[in-house]
Amino acid sequence: MPNERLKSAMTSGGWTCSALAEKVGVDTKSVERWANQNRTPRLGTARTAAEALGEDMFALWPSLRQPRAARAISPELVALYEQRADLPVALFVNLMGKATERIDVLVYAAVFLHEAYSRLNELLRERAATGCTVRIALGDPASENVRQRGEEEKFGHGIESRCRLALMHYRPLIGTPGIEIRTHGTTLYNSLYRADDQMLVNAHVWGVNAFGAPVWHLRQTGAGTLFDTYAASFDAVWNAALPVEES
Fold first, then answer.
1. What is the pTM of this model?
2. Residue 200 contacts by C-beta under 8 Å, 6 or more apart in sequence?
3. For residue 247, what are the contacts with CB-CB under 8 A and spacing of at least 6?
4. Distance (Å, whole) CA 201 – CA 228
5. Shortest CA distance to 24 belongs to which of 1, 2, 42?
6. What distance in Å separates the CA atoms of residue 245 and residue 186, rounded to the nearest whole number?
7. Residues in CB range of 193: below 8 A, 6 or more apart
8. CA distance from start to end of the chain
9. C-alpha span between 77 and 227 (Å, rounded)
10. pLDDT in tens for each of the 247 residues of the chain?
11. 12: nearest Cα among 55, 44, 41
12. What is the CA radius of gyration of the chain?
């Protein structure tokens, strides 16, 4: 099938196959094949021919338009899990247990940690005793955003109750040097679990309980900004959160 767009451009510009061939630096038969058999020249040759004809190269040879290469997977991405339920609690515990500088947790409740690992408070005390800063931000059960999340996940008032339960679990840590517990009423787009330069990000999906939503395991490498983006998100919520006082 002929390349009608090319033939029209050549006719309009008064170009013969031999003239265009000489201009581009190929033999006449090559140009004839471009025009009559719809052959596609090499990229550099096509660019030179299009410039001579005053045409757009991709309009003459659409097949040269290659899709943009997909961006490489972030060097900060360690692993991607389809849902939080796929992660063993040991992964959360091991990351926290190795932390030496900071542990940051931003959730509404995440009571699964205490339910599956009864020594969580002891572990956090041990980390704090070595100089590790521990910051836990829990959902305020009186927050409209918490209530709305319960409706969206068809969890009813259960999520508010779980926020209260989470606070009950963490309350014994209040007053421990190096550990601070706060409550927040923000819309929670992601639950964050940070231990030094590693972070588990539990993405939230509308209408899906957190245990059924994906998790990405990130490591701060200095070669990307993904980790820092989530870390800044934690700090923004933390700065607006309210400290929980000893009762």
1. 0.69
2. 87, 91, 92, 95, 192, 193, 194, 215, 216, 217, 218
3. 171
4. 12
5. 42
6. 20
7. 92, 95, 96, 104, 105, 107, 199, 200, 201, 202
8. 84
9. 9
10. 889 889 888 998 899 999 999 999 999 999 999 999 989 998 889 989 999 999 888 888 888 876 544 455 788 999 999 888 888 889 999 999 999 999 999 998 898 899 999 999 999 999 999 999 999 999 988 888 878 876 776 666 577 888 899 999 999 999 999 999 999 999 888 999 999 999 999 998 888 888 888 999 999 988 778 899 999 999 999 999 999 987 6
11. 55
12. 30
The residues, ordered by sequence, that sit 6+ positions from 94 with a Cβ below 8 Å of its Cβ are: none
DSSP-assigned beta bridge partners for residue 243: 182
- For residue 107, CA distances in Å to 65, 158, 162, 167, 204 come to 46, 15, 11, 11, 11
Residue with tokens 């606070």: 167
* Strand partners for 134: 103, 179
DSSP letter for each residue of 137-152:
EEE-TT-HHHHHHHHH
